[in-house]
From TrEMBL:
It comes from the Eukaryota. Required for the assembly of cytochrome c oxidase. SUPFAM superfamilies: Cysteine alpha-hairpin motif. Keywords: Disulfide bond, Mitochondrion. This is CHCH domain-containing protein.
């Protein structure tokens, strides 16, 4: 039996792969999985936010990592990175 790591949504998908061929929009988000997990947590816990702090923190960490990755890619001149 192999153990697979749990994907808690903390790490964003590569934004260039996620957004390839799409126009810049507030609706394209490499952290969509973390967002869905936090909404699912709220639904499962009758919208008691105190029970979902870990899911919210995972989403925040994902967004921070995504923004940092975008900045770094632009600074490094990555061709397919958005401005």
């Amino acid at each position: 039996m192999s153990l697979r790591p749990v994907d808690d949504g903390r790490t964003p998908e590569d934004f260039v792969k996620v957004m390839g061929g799409k126009t810049a929009s507030k609706y394209t988000d490499p952290c969509a999985k973390a967002s869905k997990l936090s909404m699912k947590c709220l639904e499962d816990n009758a919208y008691d936010r105190t029970k979902c702090t870990e899911a919210f923190n995972n989403y925040r960490e994902c967004k921070k990592a995504w923004i940092t990755q975008r900045r770094q890619d632009r600074l490094n001149g990555r061709e397919d990175a958005w401005n």
